[in-house]
């Protein structure tokens, strides 16, 4: 790939070219002090898969268009470890540190309602991020670990996150707007300006993190599932009980189509769609659209890309 980082590049040059990669080092468990060594040598010393390192580094440098080149080459285990460390960085270091400095930079007295709202908003944001990342740690990553140990595809809960992986950017944007537009301090506030600068960096970092999950990690795990089973995706025995029309409706629903859209596409009435839906949920013993979406992916009726594209 043109203008991308290579194994033979000096690690020092790579980091100086793209300073965002300094955070990436700790997430791969790579210490500083590597002298003149190249990327391959540094990764080998830290027992890091060099292809996975380059995949993330070039994703940061170039963007999502590099993902397709790396998906079938990277290590799902190495990327899982990277994402776990990233979660620890956000939850145990970056966000608590920003909160401490935010408290120090605003007037938190009872009389200052805007300051109270700012802190309340940030705490809600932190809570949501923690809830989401801890759920990934406890479900998605553990499921991938089981896959890496030869576990069954039916154990993988990560498909839920392909459907529900959320962005926190809008909440950070609202928080920044609240501070910039409505908080009136007693004069120049260098500390608060530094907090705002860190919030912008945090927003960018979270966006990159989500991109690595969606564009590199989830497709890599999907490939791992295929290789583990020796087939595209494991078929559920209940799938045989669905008629061809019911399969068509499952696909439409999983793609996010409304009942009317399904009816128009298949040239049937809305009432007929509702009847089919009722029968589908009964046959599969599924009780939600999310559950039906997971069923459709696991049984090869739709792909993860189709779920992401409907956002």
UniProtKB/TrEMBL annotation:
GO terms for molecular function: DNA binding. InterPro entries: Hemerythrin-like, Sig_transdc_resp-reg_C-effctor, Tscrpt_reg_LuxR_C, WH-like_DNA-bd_sf. Residues 235-300 form the HTH luxR-type domain. SMART domains: HTH_LUXR. GO terms for biological process: regulation of DNA-templated transcription. The keyword ATP-binding does not apply. It holds the Pfam family GerE. It comes from the Bacteria. Gene3D superfamilies: Winged helix-like DNA-binding domain superfamily/Winged helix DNA-binding domain. Keywords: DNA-binding, Transcription, Transcription regulation. This is HTH luxR-type domain-containing protein. It comes from Alloprevotella rava F0323. The lineage of its organism: Bacteria, Pseudomonadati, Bacteroidota, Bacteroidia, Bacteroidales.
